[in-house]
């Protein structure tokens, strides 16, 4: 296959080779544990350790800081192949990256070095705390507050649905620092250590999917912080949060593509060997047309995800527009393809002996987190109508 | 003492892909894109890398075959951590049998001064297991084959040679040829950086003439064995019924599986 330098239409030879490695790892190391992780809903520390040893947590992090190098497209390949086998496990690099991006975009050199070293060595994990009970889609309406206290800060607030809270020991936390200021221009990002006084966690939510990745509330009560804990500029945190989501959405798209591919592969295997009316059900046109549509949508989603990822890499101003489309299309595809996969397996699709029902449950979150698909459509449409034409920066 | 190790690798058709023979000369049709590093050679590469990590030194990948031998098999070995490649490719080699390949490999290996030559015990395509012993013979070196462990101490190498019911411990002086069995270790996955760096490692490309191969001793004509025909093995399904009248169906089933050498 010709290498086109990984521009999103054709992966480079190295990227294809990397895909093979991740696929083998996912099938051999994660595959045998995937159903059990879903069942027990326990964070798979052994797999985190194996992924650290394999260098997966360093992919996409700058080499000069000790990362493995590679760009957003390599991260997509990684997350896609993990998600093909286990949506829950794919969240590990996904969320660590989500929380690392604000630091890499706006953080101090010390913060950057710490995040890369921490993730690569496996010594630290990071969570991203934006959502609150009263502010989900309208994230800028958050009520967490950080107030000046001498040279430092005092942070008080509550975050909800924080992925890997309790597993992580570093929290990127967004809080209002100027309650009188203009909404969205009054927020600052902080780096809060998990052992800070006044920091605590709520219970683990009981979830439909991506189990094995805990989702918890995070509470801060008068948590003392210093200026060294501020990420980027004071009052500019929300801009960092939004840019972070633009950068991270292609990886959620990749996660969705992986889940869809996993379900499609299972369906193909199944219809070849399941016989009814004297032949494999894959001989029936009604089944074949479903498979064809599932495969077509999955490939299209993959292209859009890679396209958006290459735009992140290139610093293209249309990144937000494409990232929103990639996330929406890929997650809608993951939902429809996994639902169809369950259908193709008939009654067996509905029971836990086969992985497709898990994949269907895992797919749903990709339409919700990092901005619901309605919010993505808001972003896409705003870009079309208000920003000087399609694809311009919103 | 740092070790200068050569590891001989072969590309084979992907174990998951359909395999076809060329009906004109009965050689395997090798689709370049569906080639992989012979899985048993991957175990040999892993063993070589562990020896290098323990003793220092260098691991050279030696491979014979067309372009895909380099791009599929040898490059995988490089991405796992080997240092460089010697690649022998020549149309005169087409159709060489195991003995002829061993001769060709010997011609390549004689040019280096290797302390240890490591091979996989067999390839997943032809499965003759003949190359490592023939290679030792051509090089006039001690051969330690079917190893499940390899240790080097000073100027001696010691292996546990797998036997039917256990293993023998055998030892010989370096330099030596060692054949590694499937299962001797769990080969590492190449790292991201290893993959990125593989293309930049040195490759020495050689022709038969470069290494003094006599063309009459290789290729279809130069091989002492000839494939005359082939047939697919009929995969016959058998059904056995184990009754449990006396309550020990499990024993009977285990006996059956053992007899069939399945457990
Ligand atoms: C498993 C899981 C993990 C998560 N991980 C994290 C995390 O690590 N960090 C983090 O900060 N957050 C996280 N979240 C939160 C997630 O990003 C939010 O749930 C999401 O953004 C939606 O917010 P909400 O739940 O408050 O829904 P709401 O905003 O209340 O939305 C409810 C419904 O209204 C729709 N809606 C809202 N506004 C509009 C509008 N203007 N136009 C049309 N429709 C609209 C929404 O699309 C949705 O369908 C996670 C959530 C879950 C479930």
Short key terms for the protein model shown above:
heterodimer, A: 394 residues, alpha+beta, 4-stranded mixed beta sheet, globular, B: 263 residues, alpha/beta, 9-stranded mixed beta sheet, two-stranded antiparallel ribbon, binds flavin-adenine dinucleotide
Tally of individual helices of chain A: 10
Specify the overall morphology of chain A. globular
Radius of gyration of chain A, in angstroms, nearest whole number: 21 Å
Note the quaternary state here.
heterodimer
Strand line-up in the sheet with most strands of chain A: 1-4-5-8
Largest sheet of chain B: 9 strands, mixed
Helix content, binned percent of chain B: 25-40%
Largest sheet of chain A: 4 strands, mixed
Taking Cα atoms only, what radius of gyration of chain B do you get, to the nearest Å?
20 Å
Structure notes:
The complex is a heterodimer of chains A (394) and B (263). Chain A has helices spanning 13-40, 45-53, 72-85, 87-106, 109-121, 237-273, 285-314, 319-344, 356-366, 373-386, and strands spanning 126-129, 145-149, 152-163, 170-176, 187-193, 199-204, 215-225, 230-231, 275-276, 279-280. Chain A is α+β, with helices and mostly antiparallel strands and 394 residues long. In chain A, the strands form three sheets. Chain A has a four-stranded mixed beta sheet with strand order 1-4-5-8. In chain A, helix 3 runs antiparallel to helix 4 (87-106), helix 6 (237-273) runs antiparallel to helix 7 (285-314) and helix 8 runs antiparallel to helix 10 (373-386). The radius of gyration of chain A is 21 Å and the shape is globular. The model of chain A has no long low-confidence stretch (mean pLDDT 95). With 263 residues, chain B is of the alpha/beta class. Chain B has one domain (3-222): Rossmann fold (3-Layer(aba) Sandwich), CATH 3.40.50. Chain B is globular. Chain B is built from seven helices and eleven strands. In chain B, helix 2 runs antiparallel to helix 5 (192-198) and helix 3 (98-109) crosses helix 4 (131-139). The longest helix of chain B has 17 residues, at 39-55. Chain B starts with a strand and ends with a helix. Chain B has helices spanning 39-55, 67-80, 98-109, 131-139, 192-198, 219-222, 249-259, and strands spanning 3-9, 11-13, 35-37, 57-64, 84-88, 116-120, 143-153, 156-162, 167-173, 176-180, 203-206. In chain B, strands 9-8-7-10-6-1-4-5-11 form a nine-stranded mixed beta sheet, sandwiched between helices. Chain B is 28% helix and 25% strand. At the A-B interface, helix 1 of A face helix 2 and helix 5 of B. Flavin-adenine dinucleotide binds at residues 95, 127-131, 136-137, 161-163, 207, 215, 365, 368-372, 374-375, 378 of chain A.
